[in-house]
């Protein structure tokens, strides 16, 4: 028995006091197995009661915060006391007659404070003297759990209890490793029922199913909408709410998340906010489910994101607006997110693996980032009262025995049709659309696609990084922007031409990375020169540990705090993979299995490989679209969702890969863009207010303050799409990098909240207060929650409703070791202390991102959006999130 040295409550504290007998047979009483949750397996059946005899007697005292349990016989005494905090209870019940008069407590104490050790479910049952006594106790405990004000004089009865909360559970059976339905059976539904919450569970059948449902349901019937999935499904729900005509009211519906995806960023933030240790998988799920049952709601910021139109016919298409609760990512982060789809079977370890693979072939992207720093940061408390929800009908399906039967696809009395025919139609439409898209690409290819690409040697880059770091140290008083500008000025045209010449000489080397390795090895007098260029991207990652070991050591010398070698990084990477408990053979098979080979074949065939060979030169006019073949191949990898959305069976790795959501499975095949690191320091930063001199700068391209600096690459050789000044922003700047999900965008209601800090996407930004940075980026990440994944504490300062966007951007030139270190530090949230002149963390209220590289990936909440200019503004406290009861003053849902 847990005995945290409880002191006996004073009589004044006691709300109730009574004597009970234990329930069960002797020492087995009050174990986890007896009794189980109401109606669940092993539940209390009348037949069971006569065989079980009371074994011990207890005195129970209920206070506002605890249930004090003192064993009276046999062996009374201090050690036979249990203090059961109400904060660890999800519910209690008193089973109906003819079951014996029991008080059943559902207790989920946290496990030991070790990562991954989860809450343990304990069921404690006490036999009351009479049924009314058991019911009185049950009502009293539930009143306390549900925030009903009570005193010692209160006459406790069921009538004091508010009606049970009703939750709409939306389950994506394919999220993460496809365990959502299984976890519903084993963890989620039992706990929700123990908390006396009514629910209606619907399995989504396809993409946008949740979005469509949410647009149409009658919201007052629900106290909350809960996603049993990853962050992607919540993105659908938020946008479904915002697409309703009554969006203003609708978006105030509390939303919650029970993590069954791979990233589970929001769940990680909720877990952190509750003060729990970082955890993954079932422990995380149990924590979040527990918090959900406790039922606290907090305001949550939403960010309105305006993206480029998806259609390539941008003249007619309008920018699209969507709402985001988590992140906008460009470059490294979005690449890893999308490309690691192929490792979906690994669960969250897919991101670790994806990170290693992407670091092995690092890219940079040319672009322009503008942001509006917060002048006065105010968090707006959620003052709006929760909407009243008239009880129109009971939606709780028969709970009794629910867990014994397999869960049906929907447990609903709402008459939601399966829409199978619609799905079929959509499949065909999608196919046609893909065909059309391919045609368009071929046409463009014939016309000559363009790309701005370049590369340089890693060794040179390291040197530059070292210099920059020294500079940054010396001139700490100045900003990194100053040093960058200084760099820019120092870098003369001749030097650049020489650099270009050097790079040209490197042509013919298979891959940029390989060339980097060779150069690096040369720089090391051949030391550790593995020389051989492995075709496997991942082999490269592995080799890096060997062939870069020396170099990383050198970097460690340059950076005194880091006796952190690449070997260490790899060690840590391995540990992380182990921690994520993806079996090593699974990871190995993911590393060496078909998808990657496929990628390599493609690489060495016509797409990336060819492109990467050319990357060694400077800007170049690409040959008519060498990517087409591989692209087509990539695009024809279809989602199994379309084939068997209902099947739910254990998957092996391949099946898992196939069962992933309909995202491009092989974006690596059409990987493309600028290689890293760039040879020429090309960052330019402009701080408004240095307003454009005249209103003639209608186009950001022609704007003086946004115009590329004289020595920036696109000023020397801009790609044709950038060269032509236009009066407005050209959405044709890029095409979507891969098949966008089968999204049909519904026009938003006209009375939507305005982005008052932003002009339309095709207009120049305001001249005051904005900061603009132009150059080559490795990544830009805008985050508004603390976590980017359940184990990536990427924005430690973030709060659900701080009214801020937390921007992290990493500029080209950063070394692989530093980048890897940054990501490992991110697990602990200590990455802000990783000192590198290439890494910046700022907060803002709005930002605009203008990719100038022709291709890349952009994600919003981890979902692919059309590649092109994008802008976003935070709308403080617009939504409401179920975060649980964490001792903070909160509104209950
Ligand atoms: N039944 C379904 N079949 C196919 N796709 C679905 C289905 N239900 C939802 N989806 C789509 O799949 C994506 C769901 O992914 P989700 O984010 O929930 O899981 P995940 O990607 O594993 O987790 P995370 O986003 O945390 O990494 C969403 O974009 C959603 O639109």
How would you portray this structure in words?
It holds the Pfam family YegS_C. It comes from Anabas testudineus (Climbing perch). Residues 504-514 have a biased composition (Acidic residues). It is found in: Endomembrane system. Keywords: ATP-binding, Kinase, Membrane, Nucleotide-binding, Transferase. With 893 residues, this protein is of the alpha+beta class. It has a domain at 16-160: PH-domain like (Roll). It has 26 helices and 25 strands. The strands form 3 sheets. Strands 12, 13, 14, 15, 17, 18, 19, 20, 21, 22, 23, 24 and 25 form a 13-stranded antiparallel beta sheet that branches. α6 packs across α7. Mean pLDDT is 66; it is low at 1-5, 25-52, 376-406, 412-425, 447-463, 475-566, 576-744 and 887-891. The structure holds adenosine-5'-triphosphate. Residues 172, 174-176, 204-207, 209, 229-233, 236, 261-264, 641, 645, 661, 862-863 line the site of adenosine-5'-triphosphate.
Total DSSP E strands: 25
By CATH reckoning, the class of the domain at 16-160 would read Mainly Beta
Percent strand? 15-25%
Distance between the termini: 34 Å
Total of helices:
26
* Unreliable stretches covering 5 or more consecutive residues: 1-5, 25-52, 376-406, 412-425, 447-463, 475-566, 576-744, 887-891
What shape does the CA trace take?
elongated
Helical proportion, percent range: 25-40%
Q: What is the H level of CATH, i.e. the homologous superfamily of the domain at 16-160? A: Pleckstrin-homology domain (PH domain)/Phosphotyrosine-binding domain (PTB)
Mean of residue pLDDT values: 66
CATH topological fold name of the domain at 16-160: PH-domain like
Largest sheet: 13 strands, antiparallel
Given helix and strand content, the structural type is alpha+beta
CATH architecture type of the domain at 16-160: Roll
Overall radius of gyration: 30 Å
Bound molecules: adenosine-5'-triphosphate
């Amino acid at each position: 028995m847990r005995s945290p040295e409880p002191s006996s409550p004073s009589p004044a504290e006691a709300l109730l006091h009574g004597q009970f007998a234990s329930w069960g047979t002797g020492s087995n009483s009050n174990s986890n197995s007896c009794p189980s949750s109401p109606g669940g397996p092993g539940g209390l059946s009348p037949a069971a009661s006569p065989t079980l005899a009371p074994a011990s007697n207890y005195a129970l005292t209920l206070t506002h915060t605890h249930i004090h349990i003192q064993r009276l016989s046999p062996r009374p005494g201090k050690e036979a006391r249990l203090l059961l905090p109400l904060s660890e209870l999800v519910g209690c019940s008193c089973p109906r007659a003819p079951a014996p008069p029991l008080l059943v407590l559902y207790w989920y104490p946290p496990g030991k404070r070790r990562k991954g050790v989860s809450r343990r479910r304990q069921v404690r049952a006490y036999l009351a003297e009479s049924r009314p006594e058991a019911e009185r106790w049950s009502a009293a405990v539930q009143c306390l759990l549900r925030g009903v004000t009570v005193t010692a004089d209160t006459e406790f009865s069921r009538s004091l209890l508010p009606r049970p909360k009703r939750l709409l559970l939306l389950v994506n059976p394919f999220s993460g490793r496809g365990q959502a339905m299984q976890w519903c059976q084993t963890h989620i539904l039992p706990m929700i029922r123990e908390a006396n919450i009514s629910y209606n569970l619907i399995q989504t059948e396809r993409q946008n199913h949740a979005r469509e449902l949410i647009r149409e349901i009658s919201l007052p019937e629900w106290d909350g909408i809960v996603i049993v999935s990853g962050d992607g499904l919540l993105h659908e729900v938020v946008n479904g709410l915002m697409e309703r005509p009554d969006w203003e009211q609708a978006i105030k519906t509390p939303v919650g998340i029970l993590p069954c995806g791979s990233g589970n960023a929001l769940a990680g933030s909720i877990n952190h906010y509750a003060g729990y240790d970082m955890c993954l998988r079932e422990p995380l799920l149990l924590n979040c489910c527990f918090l959900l049952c406790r039922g606290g709601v907090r305001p949550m910021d939403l960010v309105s994101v305006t993206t480029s139109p998806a259609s390539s016919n941008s003249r007619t298409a309008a920018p699209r607006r969507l709402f985001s609760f988590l992140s906008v990512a460009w470059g490294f982060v979005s690449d890893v997110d999308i490309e690691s789809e192929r490792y979906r079977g690994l669960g969250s370890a897919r991101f670790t693996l994806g990170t290693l693979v992407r670091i092995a072939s690092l890219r940079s992207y040319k672009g322009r980032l503008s942001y509006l720093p917060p002048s006065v940061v105010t968090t707006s408390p959620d003052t709006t009262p929760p909407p009243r929800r008239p009880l129109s009908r009971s939606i709780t399906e028969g709970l009794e025995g629910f867990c014994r039967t397999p869960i049906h696809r929907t447990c609903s009395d709402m008459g939601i049709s399966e829409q199978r025919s619609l799905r079929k139609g959509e499949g065909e439409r999608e196919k046609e659309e893909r065909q059309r898209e391919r045609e368009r690409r071929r046409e463009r290819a014939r016309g000559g696609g363009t790309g701005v690409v370049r590369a340089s040697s890693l060794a040179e880059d390291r040197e530059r990084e070292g210099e920059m770091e020294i500079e940054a140290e010396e001139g700490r008083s100045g900003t990194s922007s100053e040093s960058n500008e200084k760099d820019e000025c120092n870098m003369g045209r001749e030097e650049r031409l020489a650099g270009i010449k050097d790079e040209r000489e490197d042509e013919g080397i298979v891959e940029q990375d390989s060339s980097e390795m060779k150069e690096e090895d040369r720089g090391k007098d051949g030391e550790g020169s593995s020389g051989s260029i492995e075709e496997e991207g991942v082999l490269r990652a592995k080799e890096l540990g060997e062939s870069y070991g020396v170099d990383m050591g050198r970097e460690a010398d340059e950076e005194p705090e880091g006796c952190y070698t690449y070997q260490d990084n790899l060690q840590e990477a391995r540990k992380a993979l182990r921690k994520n408990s993806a079996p090593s053979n699974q990871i190995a098979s993911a590393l060496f299995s078909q998808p990657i080979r496929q990628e390599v074949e493609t690489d060495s065939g016509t797409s990336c490989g060819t492109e990467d060979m050319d990357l060694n030169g400077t800007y170049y006019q690409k040959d008519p679209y060498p990517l087409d073949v591989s692209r087509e191949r990539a695009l024809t990898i279809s989602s199994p969702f379309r084939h068997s959305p209902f099947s739910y069976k254990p998957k092996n790795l391949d099946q898992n890969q196939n069962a992933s959501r309909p995202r491009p499975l092989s974006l690596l095949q059409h990987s493309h863009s600028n290689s890293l690191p760039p040879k020429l320091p090309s960052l330019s930063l402009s701080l408004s207010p240095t307003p454009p001199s005249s209103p003639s700068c209608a186009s950001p391209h022609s704007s003086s303050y946004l115009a590329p600096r004289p020595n920036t690459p696109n000023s020397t050789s801009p790609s044709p799409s950038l060269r032509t000044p236009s009066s407005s922003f050209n959405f044709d700047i890029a095409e979507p990098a891969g098949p966008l999900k089968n999204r049909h965008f519904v026009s938003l209601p006209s009375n939507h909240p305005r982005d008052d800090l932003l002009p339309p996407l095709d207009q120049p930004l305001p001249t005051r207060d904005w900061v603009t940075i132009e150059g080559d980026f490795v990544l830009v990440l805008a985050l508004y929650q603390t976590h980017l994944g359940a184990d990536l504490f990427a924005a430690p300062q973030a709060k659900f409703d701080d009214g801020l966007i937390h921007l992290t951007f990493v500029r080209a030139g950063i070394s692989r070791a530093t980048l890897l270190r940054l990501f490992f530090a991110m697990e602990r949230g200590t990455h802000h202390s990783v000192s590198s002149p290439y890494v910046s963390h700022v907060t803002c209220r709005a930002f605009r991102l203008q990719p100038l590289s022709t291709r890349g990936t952009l994600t919003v909440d981890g979902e692919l959006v059309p590649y092109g200019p994008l802008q976003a503004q935070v709308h403080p406290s617009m939504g409401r999130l179920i975060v649980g009861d964490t001792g903070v003053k909160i509104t209950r849902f």
